[in-house]
């Protein structure tokens, strides 16, 4: 049986906080796997899918998807979950929470273009929603669309200036569009907020190398290794 979604329930402050926490976990995973090559050498990093609910056993050894529906014959759990979200969105087409949820499911299936479309639709409906903007920035980074990601990430750090993850993402994007001064400033800010952010320290080393400051770069690489080893 498909669980019915209630837009009011899923768009409370508590729900937004939960989604934001999932995006923070996504950010943590991306920082562990991102490619730190210079733009001339860069490839789209192989990163895990957007976070989404995993299936749980139902007592019969079979799994249900996160929406409570069983897959039909020949249908994967992911396809079943997506169909359930599609059905919910058909009755609540303006639900930001459902668009985020479907974008998450699409990302888990590697369908980033479709995930981007859902997030852009959600952003049109609610331009001030930073959870949507953060998720869109993540999807654009996955696709290697660094320049497209920059304005979204800038907006996020303008409002959530306390977030080392947001600053790190911005540093990644700016590095890949050759804004080296901006990238270095973003990495430095991320490390100021979180001194244990090894990837932000490493990012500083990469940019310092590109700025032909090898001694400073070596110092940052060493600090990154020390922090990562703790």
Features:
2 strands; Serine Threonine Protein Phosphatase 5, Tetratricopeptide repeat; single chain; two-stranded antiparallel ribbon; 2 domains; 230 residues; 2% strand; 11 helices; mainly alpha; disordered N terminus
What is the structure about, briefly put?
With 230 residues, the protein is mainly α. The chain is 65% helix and 2% strand. The chain has helices at 7-10, 13-33, 77-91, 96-108, 112-125, 130-142, 146-159, 164-176, 180-193, 198-210, 214-229, and strands at 56-57, 63-64.
Can you characterise this structure?
This protein has helices at 7-10, 13-33, 77-91, 96-108, 112-125, 130-142, 146-159, 164-176, 180-193, 198-210, 214-229; strands at residues 56-57, 63-64. With 230 residues, the chain is an all-alpha fold. The chain has 2 domains: 1-144, Serine Threonine Protein Phosphatase 5, Tetratricopeptide repeat; 149-230, Serine Threonine Protein Phosphatase 5, Tetratricopeptide repeat (Alpha Horseshoe). Strand 1 (56-57) and strand 2 form a beta hairpin.
Topology record:
Layout: H1 7-10, H2 13-33, E1 56-57, E2 63-64, H3 77-91, H4 96-108, H5 112-125, H6 130-142, H7 146-159, H8 164-176, H9 180-193, H10 198-210, H11 214-229
Antiparallel strand pairs: 1-2
Helix pairs in contact: 2-6, 2-8, 3-4, 4-5, 5-6, 6-7, 7-8, 8-9, 8-10, 9-10, 10-11
């Amino acid at each position: 049986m498909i669980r019915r979604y209630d837009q009011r329930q899923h768009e409370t402050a508590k729900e937004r906080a939960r989604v934001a926490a999932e995006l923070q976990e996504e950010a943590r995973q991306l920082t562990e796997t991102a490619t730190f090559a210079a733009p001339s050498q860069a490839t789209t990093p192989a990163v895990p899918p957007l976070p989404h609910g995993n299936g749980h056993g139902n007592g019969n050894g079979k799994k249900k998807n996160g929406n409570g529906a069983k897959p039909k014959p020949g249908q994967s759990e992911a396809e079943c979950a997506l169909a359930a979200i599609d059905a919910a969105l058909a009755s609540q087409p303006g639900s930001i929470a459902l668009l985020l949820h479907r974008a998450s499911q699409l990302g888990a299936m590697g369908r980033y273009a479709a995930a981007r479309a859902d997030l852009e639709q959600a952003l049109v409906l609610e331009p001030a929603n930073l959870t949507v903007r953060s998720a869109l920035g993540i999807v654009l980074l996955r696709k290697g669309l660094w320049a497209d990601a920059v304005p979204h990430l800038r907006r996020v750090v303008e409002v959530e200036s306390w977030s080392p993850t947001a600053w790190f993402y911005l540093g990644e994007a700016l590095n890949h569009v050759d804004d080296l001064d901006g990238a270095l400033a973003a990495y430095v800010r991320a490390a100021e907020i979180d001194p244990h952010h090894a990837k932000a320290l490493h990012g500083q080393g990469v940019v310092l190398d590109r700025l032909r400051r090898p001694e400073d770069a070596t110092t940052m690489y060493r600090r990154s290794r020390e922090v990562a080893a703790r």
